């Protein structure tokens, strides 16, 4: 383990407070500043391993709310009772086991493709993962709902924000304090989902689903 991680404040805090990773504080800070979670909410967490965001969601939505998480990596047991962690592909929540009658109050994505070492390549791959999260909204997000997604900053960021603004009433990026200063990661927080396109989702679009994501997310 790198020395900087061992001595990192947020890493130590996560260990001290029983969270599975320092990422828990990123979500707490996003929620404190932008209000993405409420008591009783139903939340979909994409790329949920190791489960730290699920821990925070469970605390903040309370026993009347619930969280469903999806990841290609298995999440260790021991999560709160109002949490379900599924092994599967985030581009297909139904195939992973999320009930088809669910519409969520929030979709959260901490997904990130495996990095290549090329800043531009990693940026564009991260944007592709965000596009996946956006494409899931007509199928899984309630009108008026919220989307949070992680992206690496770069040249395609303005277009991602513009495309997201077409679907949401308020869209604004945020870099939580718990993100490392040297990291280019930033979170796009989109409120007030406008709902599916007029006329709803066509049968062909529903069966086709969203486009595939880059390998290794």
Largest sheet: 7 strands, mixed
Q: How many strand units?
A: 7
How much is the average pLDDT? 88
Number of domains: 1
The low-confidence parts are: 201-217
- Classification by helices and strands: alpha/beta
Classify the oligomer: single chain
Separation, N- and C-terminal Cα atoms: 21 Å
- Please state the overall shape, judged from the principal axes of the Cα atoms: globular
Which sequence of SSEs, written as H and E, runs from N to C? HHHEHEEHEHEHEEH
State the main characteristics.
single chain; alpha/beta; Rossmann fold; 7-stranded mixed beta sheet; 35% helix; globular
Write the layout of secondary structure elements.
Elements: H1 3-6, H2 9-17, H3 23-34, E1 42-46, H4 52-61, E2 66-71, E3 83-87, H5 93-96, E4 104-109, H6 119-140, E5 141-152, H7 157-165, E6 168-174, E7 185-193, H8 203-208
Parallel strand pairs: 1-2, 1-4, 2-3, 4-5
Antiparallel strand pairs: 5-7, 6-7
Helix pairs in contact: 3-4
Task: Provide an overview of this structure.
This protein is an alpha/beta fold. It has a single domain, classed as Rossmann fold. It has eight helices and seven strands; from the N terminus they run αααβαββαβαβαββα. The protein has helices spanning 3-6, 9-17, 23-34, 52-61, 93-96, 119-140, 157-165, 203-208; strands at 42-46, 66-71, 83-87, 104-109, 141-152, 168-174, 185-193. The protein has a seven-stranded mixed sheet, with helices on both faces. Helix 3 (23-34) packs parallel to helix 4 (52-61). The longest helix is centred in the middle third of the chain and has 22 residues, at 119-140. It is globular and about 40 Å long.
